[in-house]
Design goal:
By secondary structure, this protein is of the alpha+beta class. The protein has nine helices and 13 strands. The protein is about 35% helix and about 20% strand. A four-stranded mixed sheet has the order 1-3-4-6, with no helix packed on it. Strands 9-13-11-12 form a four-stranded antiparallel sheet. A three-stranded antiparallel sheet has the order 8-7-10, with no helix packed on it.
């Protein structure tokens, strides 16, 4: 006698089989691999190794290769040798704080409340603690504590600082918290001025860094760009470029960003102001980093334009060597102690 499963049981088995096949299909490869000779248009994972021009290279960040991005040309992507880059260990979820800053969903300390201790919280960490994006309307701050609320993730955008309770943060801040820094006493130290950066240049870049809420790392990157573009201003006399001063922003690009500059900094752009030159360059560079995913790619397109690609040429047929530019600036930035 043939025995058949009930229709309901058979359906459940089919669903389970489909689920398992999908689950095992989409799992990413976690282990590194020796990939043989480097090739363009190939997906490489962290710690993959390749050979190129008789040398071995280790992948520093996952990417899809392109012609012109050979391992010897892009130190941000490849490291000579086979030493593996440590894969970050997932950190356990921080238990809810019982003493700290309490954020509320509604005004007058109403609705859901979540308390956080000292630390820097990006959006994913806020979510893990029970705080959704763009959610906070009031907060309580213990005496001696400081809260820096940021409009964007990773401490970007406008920053608002609180040192006391606020039963209503106001229309300008309400439901706009995406990342936050909490500390006791004075703000934690950010970065140290590189010795070769002139003091006035450091003032300019730190002013811009503070406006974007980057904690000093953006100041290091801007310093590296200014060194490359104008040798901290020393290379400007006799420069054939029509670009603006320290950051060498070209006129067409400058004009395209004038309204964004006014909205961000609350003033009309002054072509002759070195501070405004750095602020405009910082605004453009920050947008490129956000659009193209990381600092290195942002530098490529800050120099080469949004449509740059390896092998691109300008209107005169000359190669646009944005990769060489990005390599040089990124190396200087890392030499200054850049963290990203």
């Amino acid at each position: 006698m043939n025995k058949t499963l009930p229709t309901r049981a058979l359906s459940l088995l089919v669903v389970a089989a489909v689920f398992l096949s999908l689950f095992f299909t989409v799992l990413p490869r976690a282990d590194a691999a020796a990939r043989g000779a480097w090739a363009p248009n190939t997906a490489y994972a962290l710690n993959d190794t390749v050979t190129y021009s008789g040398s071995t290279y280790t992948c520093l960040q996952a990417h899809t290769s392109l012609t012109g991005w050979e391992p010897s040309n892009v130190p941000a992507l490849w490291k000579s040798g086979t030493t593996a880059t440590p894969v970050p260990t997932p950190q356990p979820t921080t238990p809810p704080a019982t003493n700290g800053v309490t954020f509320y969903a509604d005004i007058d300390y109403g609705g859901k409340a979540v308390t956080l201790g000292t630390g820097n919280y990006v959006l994913s960490q806020l979510n893990a603690s029970g705080i959704p994006n763009d959610w906070m309307s009031s907060l309580k701050v213990p005496g001696g504590w400081t809260v820096d609320v940021y409009e964007n993730d990773n401490f970007g955008g406008t920053k608002w600082t609180y040192t006391a309770n606020s039963s209503w943060v106001g229309d300008g801040v309400n439901d706009k918290m995406t990342s936050v820094k909490i500390y006791i006493g004075s703000p934690p130290a950010s970065v140290t001025k590189p010795s070769e950066v002139p003091s006035q240049i450091w003032t300019y870049v730190m002013n811009v860094d503070n406006k974007f809420g980057k904690g000093g790392d953006f100041a290091l990157l801007l310093s590296a760009v200014i060194k490359k573009e104008s040798s901290f201003g020393a290379g400007l006399p006799g420069s054939p470029s029509a670009g603006d001063g320290l950051m060498q922003v070209e006129p067409n690009t400058r004009n395209a960003y004038l309204s964004q500059f006014s909205a961000k900094f609350g003033r009309t752009y002054n072509h002759s102001s070195e501070q405004d030159q750095v602020a405009l360059g910082g605004l453009i560079l920050d947008e490129k980093i956000a659009r193209f995913g990381n600092i290195y790619n942002g530098l490529l397109h800050y120099n080469g334009g949004d449509n740059w690609y390896p092998g691109a040429t300008d209107s005169y047929g000359r190669p646009i060597l944005a990769d060489q530019y990005a390599n040089a600036v990124y190396a200087t930035y890392k030499g200054y102690g850049g963290k990203n």
